[in-house]
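User: Run a structure prediction on this.
Assistant: Running it now.
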Amino acid sequence: MNTINYAALATGIMLSLTTLGTVQAAVPKDMLAIGKAADPQTLDPAVTIDNNDWTVTYPAYQRLVQYKTENGKGSTQVEGELAASWSASDDRREWTFKLKPGNRFDDGSEVTADAVKWSFERLMSIGQGPSEAFPKDMQVTAVDPLTVKFTLKTPFAPFLYTLANDGAGIVNPAIAQGQPGRSRQGLVGKPYRRFRRISPRSLAERSATDPGAEPALRRPETGL
């Protein structure tokens, strides 16, 4: 019969708690350190459907809309993120979004309707898991620099909410062109930019070009 050395077990637990306390004490208040079971496979929102990746990609990119957080809790309602407003035709086949002025990628280039159009066309042309949430017949038009229109052949009831999905992240065309399925420094959006990767850790810090509200966490870090 196997026996348990409770004294040794208790000592091990105390050492673990002491180590955990030391690590927590070393983390600045404006930094979130996350222990992950594995490195992200990719940081490209047009490619990944992995929950492990999403914990990094979802806060790293902005979308036209995002799910509301109310009193610290998530909800099923959406609000504008890059979009200042939107409207839908009576038949729900055309959706028009007005972008907030002043949105910029980390390299300083403006987030325009053309960038939104390019991001969705890239998503659909890559054709991996994230694209399956969107209508295959979707057409995207840049009406003017701050207006983008989606045209559907048939109404799609959850369309607005689908735009809050991880796969709807807007990427920087100047960085992402010629990089299908890949992501590298500068591809991500606001409010955090990928700063460096030192295996097995990834470190992000706030983008200097982000005009939004000051985030509570300036340096999210993930590691094994």
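The chain has one domain: 33-223.
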